[in-house]
Amino acid sequence: MDSTLLSAKNLSVRFGGVLAVNNVSFDVKQGEVFTLIGPNGAGKTTVFNLISRIYTPTSGEIAYLGPQGMLKLTDQPPQNVASLGIARTFQNIELFEHASVLHNLLIGRHTHRQTGLWQDIFFTGKTREAEILAREKAEEVIDFLGLQHYRDAFVAGLPYGVRKVVEMARALCTEPKLLLLDEPSSGLNVEETDDMAFWIQDIKNELGITVLMVEHDMSLVSKVSDRVLAMNQGEVLAMGTPREVQADPGVIEAYLGSIDDVSSLRRQATQEAA
């Protein structure tokens, strides 16, 4: 049985004369953590924006296993993406700062709204039931991510690391099948990054959510990723396990320079240590 949740085929994106993504293909399997890595400008976030439908590919397509079976995601309008079971966080946190943590999470429940305008205005029985269910789901996510202490606090007064977790919590409130995490460790210290690794593993193992991640921190990548796709200058360099990709000569060169450069750095470090 095919376990593919998302399949990108021959994706290319051109902005004027710049080819930002060039013929990129990969499959994301259900229940895995799949990570995109690469130097700045490699095209990773552009691929994320294609999946989110912020961008439309110049060529190629993306297939996704929606509620009614495989569909062509590139044909879907952006406003339909969340209702298909795809949620996303951003490298630059996008929260309502002057609202509480709970209210930010309740916003994430909008994709499950089943009441109409007049029902909401008159706060009918169906609206009350929907409100209770939304709050129950939000409280479940608060408990899952250990945010009870911050439940009623305004986002504007929270530490940066907590805000990152709140944004992930809001994404989880949509009950996604596929969670897109854009640089989840960006701006975090070592302890907070370790906590983030813990949450990502629990999201996969306990909630059964597939994770597609863009990340620079290779320690986090190694801890949580089942497979890694390395990109450079909009193209695929290597794909495999974290160990396989980090050992790939093309990946080493993209990050550190040529193999000769790396050997020279190692010799220099050895001489300095001596």
TrEMBL record:
The keyword Iron-sulfur does not apply. One of its GO terms (molecular function) is ATP binding. Residues 6-258 form the ABC transporter domain. Gene3D superfamilies: P-loop containing nucleotide triphosphate hydrolases (3.40.50.300). CDD domains: ABC_Mj1267_LivG_branched. One of its GO terms (cellular component) is plasma membrane. Keywords: ATP-binding, Cell membrane, Membrane, Nucleotide-binding, Transport. This is ABC transporter ATP-binding protein. It comes from Rhodoferax saidenbachensis. The lineage of its organism: Bacteria, Pseudomonadati, Pseudomonadota, Betaproteobacteria, Burkholderiales.
